[in-house]
Specification:
InterPro entries: DUF1841. The chain has 143 residues and is mainly α. Helices cover 71% and strands 0% of the residues. 21% of the residues are buried.
Length: 143
């Protein structure tokens, strides 16, 4: 998925959840996304009710996490790990998993670094800085 709209992202997650519930065959990307969804049972209600949640707005001011954004960032991380891009991320994340004791805590630490680097790139109107991203991950895995 390259630069999907908000609605396309939501429909993607609604569709894979529906397909999984029906036992349908999933593409490799859908299977990867499903593993992310399955690790987040707190979002199953949302994904089971597209009519109710398709247009819902989640606001940080309300202390809410947008489930589609959260799942999308997880999926981006899984894609990065599957191809080791940026180079070296897989090993750093494995170290982080060892340090934190589980994959989910490690993924959430990765998420913090990834979101920070995206924010910096957007704020400063510069390209995403892979080295700063990896440095953030290294600090978390060693500190």
């Amino acid at each position: 998925m390259f630069n999907p709209s908000r609605n396309e992202v939501r429909e993607f997650f609604f569709a894979i959840w529906s397909k999984a519930q029906a036992g349908s065959v999933l593409t490799p990307l859908e299977a990867m996304a499903l593993s992310v969804v399955q690790a987040h049972p707190e979002y199953h209600e949302v994904l089971s009710n597209p009519e109710r949640y398709r247009e819902r707005e989640w606001t940080p001011e309300g202390g809410e996490t947008n489930p589609f954004l959260h799942l999308s960032v997880h999926l981006a991380i899984e894609e990065q790990l599957s191809i080791d891009q940026p180079p070296g991320i897989r090993g750093i994340v494995q170290s982080l998993e060892s340090k934190l004791g589980n994959a989910m805590d490690a993924r959430h630490a990765v998420m913090d670094c990834l979101v920070e680097q995206i924010w910096q790139a957007q704020r400063n109107a510069v390209p995403f800085n892979n080295e700063a991203y990896l440095d953030c991950l290294r600090r978390r895995s060693s500190g």
